[in-house]
Structure formats: C-alpha cells, structure tokens
Amino acid sequence: MKQVLGLVICLIAPGGLALSRKESNFFSCISQSQSLPPFDFVPPRGSNEFFSPHCQYEPALGTLLICFHDLTANQTKQDQLLHDSYGVIADYCGRLGGADLDIHTFERRYQNATKYVLSENEARAYNLSTPIRFPVRLNLTTVLTYADSFSLFAGNFAWAYDFSTIMCMFWVVTLGLIGIFNHIKHFRWNNKLKGGMIDSFRSYIALPTLNGNHFQPWNMFGALGKWAPFKLFDSLIPTTQESIVVLLYCIIVIVSSSVGYTLQDQNALLGAKDLQYYRYLADRTGILAFAQLPALFLFGGRNNILINLTGLQFNTFIIFHKWISRAMVILAALHAYAFREYTIIRGQYEKVSQETLWLFGRQALEAGILIILQAIYFFRSRWYELFLAVHIILALVFIVGAYLHCKSIGYLEWTYASMGVWALDRVWRLMKIYRFGTPKATFKLHFGTIVVSIPKPDHWKPYPGCFVYLYILSPSVSWKLWESHPFTIYSVGNEVRIYIKKKDGMTQKLYDYLLAARESQLRVAIEGPYGHASSLESYDNILLLAGGNGVPGPYYHCMHHLEQAQSKGWRKNIHFVWISPYFTALRWFGRELLALQTKDQHNYVSKDIYLTRENKLVQKTSSDTRPANSRTPLISISSEELMARVMGQLSEEHLADYHIHKMRPDVSKLISSVLDEAEVEGHRSGLAIVVCGSDILVDTIRDVVAHKVGTSGNQMRIDLFEELQVW
Ligand SMILES: Cc1cc2nc3c(=O)[nH]c(=O)nc-3n(C[C@H](O)[C@H](O)[C@H](O)COP(=O)(O)OP(=O)(O)OC[C@H]3O[C@@H](n4cnc5c(N)ncnc54)[C@H](O)[C@@H]3O)c2cc1C
Ligand SMILES: NC(=O)c1ccc[n+]([C@@H]2O[C@H](COP(=O)([O-])OP(=O)(O)OC[C@H]3O[C@@H](n4cnc5c(N)ncnc54)[C@H](OP(=O)(O)O)[C@@H]3O)[C@@H](O)[C@H]2O)c1
Ligand SMILES: *[C@@H]1O[C@H](CO)[C@@H](O)[C@H](O)[C@H]1NC(C)=O
Ligand SMILES: *[C@@H]1O[C@H](CO)[C@@H](O)[C@H](O)[C@H]1NC(C)=O
Ligand SMILES: *[C@@H]1O[C@H](CO)[C@@H](O)[C@H](O)[C@H]1NC(C)=O
Ligand SMILES: *[C@@H]1O[C@H](CO)[C@@H](O)[C@H](O)[C@H]1NC(C)=O
Ligand SMILES: CC(=O)N[C@H]1CO[C@H](CO)[C@@H](O)[C@@H]1O
Predict the structure, then answer these.
(1) What confidence score (pLDDT) does residue 517 get?
(2) How many angstroms separate the alpha carbon of residue 723 from the centre of ligand 1?
(3) Which sign does the torsion angle of CA 626, 631, 634, 638 carry?
(4) Pocket flag, ligand 1, residue 362 (CB < 6 Å)
(5) Cα dist. 104→80, 90, 99, 101, 181 in Å?
(6) C-alpha dihedral (351, 352, 356, 360), degrees to nearest 10
(7) Does the Cβ of 311 fall within 6 Å of ligand 7?
(8) Quick check: CB of 145 below 6 Å from ligand 6?
(9) Closest atom of ligand 1 relative to the 385 alpha carbon
(10) CA–CA separation, 45 and 74 (whole Å)
(11) CA dihedral over 676, 682, 686, 689, signed as positive or negative
C-alpha cells in the first residue's frame, strides 16, 4: 500500500500537477485501485505503469468506471459529474496512458463491467501468482478518504490561483486609482481637488520622498557608504506613495504564501504532517512564483501599455519590476527548498533531482538569483550596458528554464504571457525605430555639450517633455551599434535636437570622437517618442524649473506654451527658471535662449536664470553690477543671425530679457513668490511645476512641493511633473 501510494506521489510529485476538484474522482479511484493485487496486464515497455493499465486493460478501466458511478450515485448532477470524470480519464489516457479513448463508449463499457464485477474483498483474495481478470467494485469508504486528501491537495492549488487573481486585481486597482487621478489633471476641475484631506494625503503620501532621497542613491550605512564594500548597498528609494504600493504588494505575497493550509494527522495521499506541509508549500509558492511572471515582464518593457494608461513614468514601473522580481525569486527559492525537503523525507531526492524537470527548475532559479545580484545599483550605475546585456541573457535563460521546467506539467500560460509581452515590446520598439528611419544627424561639440541635430520625418510627432533612445549607427564611435541611450529632445521645425552631457560610457566615446572631428555627420536611429505629454493646458500657472543639462524638456514646454498662448490668446503665467552653476555653462544652449527671447516679444514668459557659483568668479574678475534686465536693442534681428554673431561670446547683454541672478535660489521661496504673484493677478486655477535637473535638485523640489501642498492652506492646487528619470 505504501509503495503504491509512493508511486502516485512520485508521478504527480515532482512538478505538482495542477489538480482541480474535477480530477479528484479520477485520482481517488485510481489510487485505491492501485492498492489491489495487480491486474492481469503487463504495461508495454516504456509506457506509464501508473496510468496505462487503466487505459488499456478493460477490467481495470471498468473498475474506474464503476468507481465513478458509485461516487456520483445519488448526487443531483450525476450526469455532469460523470461526464467530467470521463473527460479526465480520456485526457490522462491520451497524454500519459497510451490510449485514445472515446468517452461515448464509456457508458456501454460500464454496463458490461457491472456484469463481471468482483467485490473488493474478493479481489483482495487474489495474489501475485493469480492476477485479477475482472472489474472490481472498490470500497467506497476508503475511496472517499482519498477523495478527502485530494480535495485538500487540489484545494491548495485553488488557493494559489485565487491569490494570483487577487494579486492581479491589486495591480489593476492601485494602478487604476493612480491612473484616474493622473488623468483628471487634463481637466480644469482638477484644480478644485484641494483642501483638507486631499491636501494632507498629497502632502504626506502622494508627493514626498520617503527619506529625502529618490533619484539620489541612498546608502543604509550612511556616511560609511562612501567606502568600498559599503558602496554595494547604494540603492534607489521609492517615493512614499510607491513605497506604500510596494509594501501592500509584499504583504499580499506573504499572506498568499502563508494562509489556507489544512494539515491532517495522516493524509491518505501525502502521509504525515511534515510531508503535507512541505508539499503544500511547494505547490503554492511554485504557482505564485509563476503568477508574478506576466507583470514582471510587462513592467520591465519600454512599451508597457500601462505607462500610457496610468500616466506613471517608466521608472515607477521599474521600481515595481524590481520588487516583483525579488518576490518572485524568493517564492521560487521557497518552492525549491520545500520540494527538496519533501523528496528527501520520501527518500526520492537522489532520483528526482536528476530529472530534467528538476534541472531546468534549478537553472531558472539560479538565473533568477544571479539577476537580482547583478542588477544592484552599484553595478547598474557603473556599467549600465554590461548590466543590460547580462540582464537580458539571464532573463532568457530564466524564462526558457521556467518554460522547460513546466513543459510537461502545465502552467505554461504564465510563461507564454511573459514571452508574448516581451516579444511584443521588442516588435514595438523596432516599429518605432522604423517609423523614424535612420537619417544622418549632425553632431557638434558646443561648449562641452554634444548637440545633435536630426532631421525628422513629417509624420513623426514629438511633444514637450518626450524623450527618445538614440542609437549611433557608426562603428567609428562605438562598435556596439545596439546601444541606445535615452535623451530628452527639443524639436523645432523639422529638426529634433538632443543635448548630451558627457558621462563615462558611450557619451564619453562620442565626446572623444568629436574632440578630434569637431563636427560630424553620423547615421543614427531614433526610438521614440516616449514619456508623457504632460497636460499643462488645464493650469493657469506654469513653473518650468530646470537645472544644468536638464533644460531641454522645460524649455520645450516653454516654447510650446508660448506658441499656444500667442495663437489662442491665453492669459497664463509662465515662469521659466534655469539654475546653472556658471554663465559659461549656458553657452551651449545660447541659440535656444535667444530664440525664446526673440519669440517672446512681449515678455509673456518670465525668464530667470540663477547662476549658483558665478558670484565667486565674478568677485575675482570684475565688479559688473549692471542691472540684469536692461534691454539691449539686439532683439530686433533674428536669433539665427544673432547666433552667428555672438557664437562663442554669448554674454549677459544678449540675454536682456532674462533676469540673471548670481545666487543659489531658495526653491521654496521661489514657489511662494509664484503663488503670490498668481494670487495678485487672479490666476487662481492651479500651478503646474515641471522639473528636470540633477537628482538632488529634483528630490529637493519634490519635498518642497509636498510641504507647500500641506501648508499653503486654501491656496491653489499645485501639481508636480517630474521629468527626470533614473533607473
Ligand atoms: C528619460 C531620460 C532622459 C534623459 N535626457 C538626457 C538629456 O537630455 N541630456 C543628457 O545629457 N542626459 C540625459 N539623460 C541621461 C543620459 O541617458 C545618460 O547620461 C546617458 O545614457 C549616459 O550614457 P553613458 O554610456 O555615457 O553613461 P555611463 O557613464 O555609463 O553612466 C552614467 C549614468 O547613466 C545611466 N545610464 C547609462 N546608460 C543608460 C541607459 N541606456 N538608460 C538609462 N540610464 C543609463 C547609468 O546608470 C549611470 O547612472 C536622460 C536620461 C533619462 C532616463
Ligand atoms: N529626463 C531626464 O532624466 C534627464 C533629462 C535631461 C538631463 N538629464 C540629466 O540630468 C542631469 C542634469 O544635471 P546637471 O548635472 O547638468 O546639473 P548641474 O550642472 O549639477 O546643475 C544643477 C544646478 O542646480 C543647482 N542646485 C542643486 N540643488 C539645488 C537646490 N536644492 N536648490 C537650488 N539649486 C540647486 C546646483 O547648484 P550648486 O552649484 O550650488 O550645487 C547647480 O547649479 C544630467 O546628468 C543629465 O544627463 C536627465
Ligand atoms: C466486458 O467486460 C469483460 C471483463 O472486463 C471483458 O473481458 C470484455 O472484453 C468486455 N466486453 C466488451 C464488449 O467490452
Ligand atoms: C445512494 O443511495 C443508496 C440507496 O438509497 C445507498 O444504498 C447508497 O449507499 C447511496 N450511495 C451514496 C454514495 O451515498
Ligand atoms: C495464491 O492463490 C492461490 C489460489 O488462489 C493459492 O493456491 C496460493 O496459495 C496463493 N499464494 C499465496 C502466497 O498466498
Ligand atoms: C470498507 O472498508 C472499511 C474500513 O476500511 C470497512 O469498515 C467496511 O466494512 C468496508 N466495506 C465493505 C463493503 O467492504
Ligand atoms: C497618458 C497618455 O500618455 N496617454 C496617451 C496614450 O496613448 C494615446 C494614443 O497613442 C494618446 O493619445 C494618449 O495621450
């Protein structure tokens, strides 16, 4: 009896068949039938010893049919239940039992079997030398104890599926709610959503960073983090709202994998308590791990439809992607651990651990653990391209391993969904590249910044705040032609401009190349546009805050809204503020600054430039205290002409309409003054703040805005649109 049970378990054990309650009758009857002396049937070589007699030998099949009838007798929907059980036999016999059975013959076969039937006691009187040649009516009491065990066993799978559904609903509901509030920003009555509870919620939950760090890496060891081994613990911290979503998700994962286990003293199917426990845990965590896959792959893609639907940034989804991956790997590790213990107790470890199914599962888990380790901020921020390549290769190893692990036992829908989502993202990316084409772009080194001008096809529609991935298809710069880097664009006329600040990777190579060549025509591919078209139309006041090289996005908004205002006759307050260290650090953007000045004849936009480190320089060189906003008549000529004339020597005189402050601005005061001005001018319907700049600046502004929302009482609604992204 024990050995026979062992056989059942061994067959359904390694991967954990998806047992549903439908299959309960089938497994109960077949298990009980296995405890009889053997039937007069020798399974053909290589066939499944467990299923093939019941599929190929008439008396054994008859035994099952009689058992089904007995189990379903007196039940209201007997026909339906019988039909389900017949379906299960036909299915298993087709897949594993080596016989294609027609369920329409089952009723006739049952009738025939009843003519020859033996009682169980009679059958037990047989022994090995005289095998059973007739159908047997199994003892219903014992069959029902199996049914009990199976229903617990199958019930565990049902719990796992229910929790998977709950997790899916969790994402739908949270992201849906966030999405609704983001989309309301398109409408003017968004600006009525303020005061009391709403402000407190936004001030303490929706807006602020968790600990002052969001885009700046944070180290849990504080100051120690500067030293080598501690540097490994640098990490990016989600905002408060994102942290809450992540926390809720983790709670759901923990609850899903820990409740709903019913252990019996002795389970007919699994045996003792510890065996039941390990087996249930293994099945549950295995399915839950698989259930994470679609969201994991969806959230990691550039063309995630949810980015569009929720209005959340790609980097928010990357945060969720990271946490889902961690949960998934932990669940998979628990699954592996529990199965290992289970097979060890059953004494099958040596055998089972050599099966391909086990080996592929192991491969997937190892790939998963490696991904988590190689993706830490330390590696990602230093060797992004290497990180990405290794990440993709390991993800492939992982998903193929997961697929093969489950190939013979089911659950493939999760892996198909994941691979589908991934493939779709790739196809979408190729389509985006194809739509832009691969034009030749002009690369120019302009005061230390690389300015790229790319002719744009007419049908390609950029929008303020969007970014693209730039591929440089020129082996002389880099042979890694597949490398793509995200850059914010500014588009004017039929040209797309990108301004690249030199870092240490591809941008460094490009910089070195241009140092020699100065100006160069290189073929590029552009993948985009990506990012949101921030809906600033519904706000009366717009504050565009840029820091350093982050200026193209806010500037694009500025030009766009200036055009809109001029053509539609809007009255709005638009403030363009650029914070930069030195005046010389403005020169690379001189052409654009002048273009704004020329376009904005009536000073519709208030234009401020803060030079945070200029003062020290100025004190050393001159005592130039000319009032910043004295107008120079240079304005009348076109910016292109002016550009040609002042190239290389852009000075404060040329920027007559800009207020140039040689100080570090207090962002809080800056926002207050914008609010006060709006109050005075009667533009009370909302303030949109668009920020892009260095990580410290953006984090500071986030917290300042959160504070303002909480303390500015019944003043107007303030919304923050961050354009910086770090992942
Ligand atoms: C949405 C967005 C818009 C951006 N817009 C601009 C812009 O207009 N002008 C500008 O100068 N910079 C911009 N950046 C930053 C720019 O993408 C990086 O500076 C550039 O990719 C660095 O390339 P590198 O090989 O020289 O980097 P490295 O010196 O190798 O790395 C520098 C930093 O950039 C990160 N990084 C590198 N490659 C990528 C990548 N493919 N995707 C995401 N992060 C990466 C690294 O993690 C590291 O933190 C933007 C970034 C994002 C995410
Ligand atoms: N969408 C995107 O993700 C995106 C888009 C474009 C660019 N970028 C990246 O963003 C970065 C741009 O930053 P950068 O390095 O060019 O900037 P930067 O030169 O360091 O300039 C930032 C300026 O902001 C000031 N500043 C910082 N914190 C401040 C605060 N709390 N209050 C007031 N002023 C503050 C600094 O003043 P001090 O001198 O006093 O420190 C400095 O003048 C680049 O790395 C670029 O690649 C990203
Ligand atoms: C009827 O059942 C007996 C015993 O199981 C079997 O030997 C015989 O082949 C069956 N006949 C038909 C027509 O299925
Ligand atoms: C069905 O009813 C018959 C007679 O009422 C009874 O003998 C039999 O045990 C019942 N079967 C089940 C499975 O309850
Ligand atoms: C097996 O059964 C046969 C007849 O049914 C009987 O003669 C024999 O002794 C039995 N053998 C054993 C080991 O019980
Ligand atoms: C079925 O088995 C139980 C215990 O295993 C026993 O008490 C009962 O008498 C059996 N019934 C028949 C019909 O053999
Ligand atoms: C929020 C957002 O970006 N919505 C966009 C989703 O995609 C459609 C069609 O591409 C756009 O029209 C929406 O603006």
Answers:
(1) 85
(2) 13
(3) positive
(4) no
(5) 14, 10, 15, 9, 57
(6) -130
(7) yes
(8) no
(9) 38
(10) 41
(11) negative
What residue type is 406 in one-letter code?
C
Contacts 24+ apart (CB under 8 A), 408-413: 408/15, 408/357, 409/14, 409/15, 409/16, 409/17, 409/18, 409/357, 410/15, 410/17, 410/18, 411/18, 411/287, 411/290
DSSP structure class, residue 266: S
Cα 513 to Cα 294, 383, 478, 685, distances in angstroms: 42, 20, 10, 49
Length of the chain: 727
Ligand 2 interacting residues, C-beta cut-off 6 A: 467, 488, 501, 547-550, 553, 579-581, 612-613, 664-665, 667, 692-694, 696-697, 700, 723-725
Number of H helices, E strands in the chain: 26, 16
- DSSP-assigned states of every residue in 497-559: EEEEE--SSHHHHHHHHHHHHSEEEEEEEEEEEES----GGG-SEEEEEEEGGG-HHHHHHHH
For the chain, report the end-to-end CA distance as a whole number of angstroms: 58
Residue 265 φ then ψ, to 5°: -60, -45
| Ligand index nearest the alpha carbon of residue 39 | 3
Residues 14-47: tens digit of each pLDDT: 333 445 667 888 888 998 898 888 899 988 887 7
pLDDT of residue 721: 95
Residue nearest to atom 9 of ligand 3 (CA): 58
Please report how the helices 384-406 and 356-374 are oriented relative to each other, as an axis angle in degrees rounded to 10.
Answer: 160
Residue 122 beta carbon below 6 angstroms from any ligand 5 atom: no
User: Which residues of the chain fall below pLDDT 70?
Assistant: 1-21, 616-648, 713-714
Residue 413 CB: number of other CB atoms within 10 A? Answer: 12
Question: How many angstroms does the Cα of residue 389 sit away from the middle of ligand 1?
Answer: 16
Sole residue written with tokens 């460094």: 508
Cis peptide before 529 (omega within 30 of 0): yes
Q: How far is the CA of 71 from the centre of ligand 4 (A)?
A: 9
Q: Considering only CA atoms, which residue is closest to atom 13 of ligand 7? A: 308
pTM of the model: 0.86
Cα–ligand 3 centroid distance for 113 (angstroms):
7
The protein residue whose alpha carbon is closest to atom 5 in ligand 3 is 59
Distance 214 CA to ligand 7 centre (A): 26
| Candidate from 377, 483, 487 with most ligand 1 atoms within 8 A of CB, to mutate | 487
